[in-house]
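Model: You mentioned two targets. I'll fold them one after the other.
Researcher: Yes, keep them separate.
Model: Target one:
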Amino acid sequence: MLFIQPSYGTPEARRYGRTTLDRAVPFRDDLLDPDDLARLIALHPDGRARFWGATEKHDKRMATVGTGDVVLLTGGKHVRATAEVGHSFRNPAFARRLWNPDPGKCVWSNVYSLRRYRTLALPYEAIWALPGFTAGDNFMGLRFLDEARSAAVLDLLRSAH
């Protein structure tokens, strides 16, 4: 599965990104469920990972995200990075500790670690040119792609690599 997630478009997202996308962070944390910690250690044996997340309104869809799924991290009309999902789990307290949101701001309940993180500067126009996409679509909000559109994007990423 492939999904698109805005992550560089707003000042708040860029602040979160500087915290957990620009660098791997330690995750051995008393707020983690033992099963989640064990899975994170198995996927990130050095005890550090990049993380991103989604709000509770996406709980149902995020429950389908698994190891090896691909995420496109977007902002400023570009795909800014791509990564493979490591471990996806729900833990609002851990998310709050990771991103320290301003009081009253929506906190993420869904968290996922990232592997094979790669920065890009792929303009949206390259995605819009693929079958099934619409020119001018700014990919607002979390979006899960169907199999055909996922395959087209993955082919584009392989050719841009």
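Model: Target two:
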Amino acid sequence: MNTCSDIRKFTCPIECTLNAIGGKWKILIMYYLSIDGVKRYNELKKSINGITHKMLSNQLKELENDGLVHREEYHQIPPKVEYSLTAKGLTLLPVLKMMSEWGEQNMK
């Protein structure tokens, strides 16, 4: 699914971007995936302070539906699922880097 091609029409490109990564959790999920490359669900849950299981699950599904995160399921016992950024998701890394730099400069 293309993030900005849903039925709703956007009035500006920033609105499209915010639709894809808007909110506190999506950006953090993408940030931790960018650091480690691949993470399992529980690893993401432990990395993101304060996120609930339901919220993490919902946000991962939205990111996957928008083509930003890849979900790899391994059929084994115990079940194993890994998440990583897609090529499209990787294109947002410069935006996340700039957000991180801005935060570092203004956290003081």
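Researcher: Noted. Anything on target two?
Model: The chain has a mean pLDDT of 88.
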